[in-house]
């Protein structure tokens, strides 16, 4: 499969690198065509890896992964171009984190979400929200954390969610540990997990954790 | 111990009933002195159970539990009276749920929380936020759900958190499954868990579940 991964931060490079290892072709997209971080990443990641602008990456990918921060997601996807997203699975892994008055906040929050913003702005993209609930190393290597811990997917398009669940399976997440929460509106719920994740990360002193759901039936 | 449980809904009656079973004296407080639900509860719960106004209950209790909804918590506690809360452990189990435009919302959210509102309004009370992350039947009977699932406590007063952790221990929660997240500000994080809890409850079709935290170390 040909993937576009938008964003050259740790999340984008980690996801892109794992997809290349799995045999996929990946273009890491950034605001500028010759972003040195992206170029260096592509050189190290090998033959199936390339670097390009958001637009070049999105044009090359059959699936597009939004791995830029929630605050700049719409701008990055606008630069990628609506035509390059049309009909494609668009995986949003971002969180709406913003640093304000010396503290981390979420924006949008509760009455909206980045997942919904993206789906509204690009109605012909098949947006699936997932992976934002764990650290990027856990995203691509769930075995870092013991137990039957879970991920969530949400989005309007059932076949897009199936395709994303298959990709998560390649990362090591069994399908029974990927919970379908429903439509893209449920992005609100998974984005609002972040404050508790941040508290737990501080309490544990690391990011190698996740939640397992225990149920009576 | 003498407990005041403010609120005659399912949460208040369930918590009050369990505390009576455990040998404590409980006054179930409501807006009106002769609330028939509270009177009937007290009659059924037995000799250690009483019903009264918010103020009578808070005056009688050594520990006060806020089990009214987040939207009416401040009004209930004002009716209980600041003098009746002074120096006491005040356990807030509420969530800021509000039904608006045909949908459930949280208010306050993200930049404030019910836990913080209560602590600000009653600075001499020793507020501990806990239990709001699970259904009330799970609150008092964690064995309904298998596994090492957890609760959270937060609040400014370490000895108040210890005392609450001991009460949770009586309910069946081992101390190692009660995570101290820090100060009362972390009420935001645990209150923001609610949307995901609601999604999961709908997905599972019941409320007998909870999260277990899995970690690498």
Automatic annotation (TrEMBL), chains A, B:
It holds the Pfam family F420_oxidored. PANTHER family: DUDULIN-RELATED, REDUCTASE. The keyword Oxidoreductase applies. It comes from Streptomyces actuosus. It comes from the Bacteria. The lineage of its organism: Bacteria, Bacillati, Actinomycetota, Actinomycetes, Kitasatosporales. The keyword Metal-binding does not apply. Residues 3-96 form the Pyrroline-5-carboxylate reductase catalytic N-terminal domain. This is NAD(P)-binding domain-containing protein. Keywords: Oxidoreductase. Coiled coil: none annotated. Gene3D superfamilies: NAD(P)-binding Rossmann-like Domain (3.40.50.720).
């Amino acid at each position: 499969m040909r993937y576009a991964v938008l964003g050259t931060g740790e999340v984008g490079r980690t996801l892109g690198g794992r997809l290349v290892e799995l045999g996929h072709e990946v273009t890491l997209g950034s605001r500028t065509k010759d972003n040195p971080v992206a170029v260096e990443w592509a050189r190290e990641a090998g033959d199936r890896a390339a670097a390009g602008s958001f637009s070049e990456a999105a044009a090359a990918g059959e699936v597009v992964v939004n791995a830029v921060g929630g605050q700049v997601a719409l701008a990055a996807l606008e630069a990628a171009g609506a035509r390059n997203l049309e009909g494609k699975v668009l995986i949003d892994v971002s969180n709406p984190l913003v640093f304000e008055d010396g503290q981390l906040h979420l924006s949008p929050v509760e009455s909206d979400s980045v997942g919904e913003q993206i789906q509204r702005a690009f109605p012909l993209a098949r947006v699936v929200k997932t992976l934002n609930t764990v650290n990027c190393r856990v995203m691509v290597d769930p075995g870092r954390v013991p137990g039957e811990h879970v991920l969530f997917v949400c989005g309007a398009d059932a076949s897009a969610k199936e395709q994303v669940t298959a990709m998560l399976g390649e990362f090591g997440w069994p399908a029974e540990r990927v919970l379908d929460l429903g439509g893209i509106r449920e992005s609100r719920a998974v984005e609002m997990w972040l404050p508790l994740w941040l508290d737990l990360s501080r309490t544990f002193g690391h990011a190698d954790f996740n939640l397992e759901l225990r149920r009576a039936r």
